[in-house]
Specification:
Blueprint: E1 23-30, H1 40-57, E2 61-68, E3 71-80, H2 85-91, H3 100-117, E4 122-129, E5 146-150, H4 160-168, E6 171-174, H5 175-180
Helix pairs in contact: 1-2
Length: about 180
């Protein structure tokens, strides 16, 4: 450019701003009846509130899938994190069965579709569960980094969430580590 006037064709072409790719955080919450024991879901709500605040500050997109009752239910799918998530979180209750396997299958399909639409997007999965499933034959491997937060509490712990994390190829943390440390 010469004094603000274009001199060659490239001076007038539209240039995309360079910035890092968006992040998508897919949060899967096990809200089955077993998560009511020993304040497990209540403590998880505190952790999720902090996560939603972090997502908002980092301008991450959020997808939220709950597993309770008969079938998993999408709450949000890839929207920018907002303060409205607090209202949903306040109303979150636990009950019914654990359609967690169906939720994981649904999440895997949705993430694959989304990856085709937004190939530069950085996806992450956070699974909040007590791991109290009767049985499972195999778990889907989600094609992005994952973290399983074990919310199982009480004097008798089955420890199934740790095995789930191994099969999902996800990192594992117990909620007590995150609250205390």
């Amino acid at each position: 450019m010469l004094n603000g006037r274009p001199r060659q064709r490239s001076d007038v072409l539209f240039h995309l701003r360079t910035r890092s790719a968006h992040e998508l955080w897919l949060v899967i919450v096990d809200a089955s009846a077993s998560t009511r024991r020993h304040q497990a879901l209540s403590d998880a709500k505190g952790l999720l509130a902090q996560l939603f605040d972090d997502a908002y500050r980092q301008r991450a997109r959020l997808a939220l899938l709950t597993a309770s009752g008969l079938a998993p239910k999408w709450q949000v799918q890839g929207l920018k994190a907002s303060s409205g998530m607090r209202d949903w979180l306040d109303g979150l209750g636990a009950g019914g069965g654990t359609p967690l396997l169906a939720a994981l299958g649904e999440a895997g399909r949705w993430l694959a579709m989304r990856q085709k639409r937004f190939p530069a997007e950085q996806q992450r999965v956070l699974l909040v569960t007590d791991g109290r499933l009767k049985e499972w034959s195999s778990l889907p491997v989600l094609e992005c980094p994952g973290l399983l937060i074990d919310i199982e509490r009480g004097p008798i712990r089955l420890g199934r969430a740790k095995q789930m994390a191994v099969e999902l190829q996800a990192d594992y943390r117990h909620i007590d580590e995150l609250i205390l440390g």
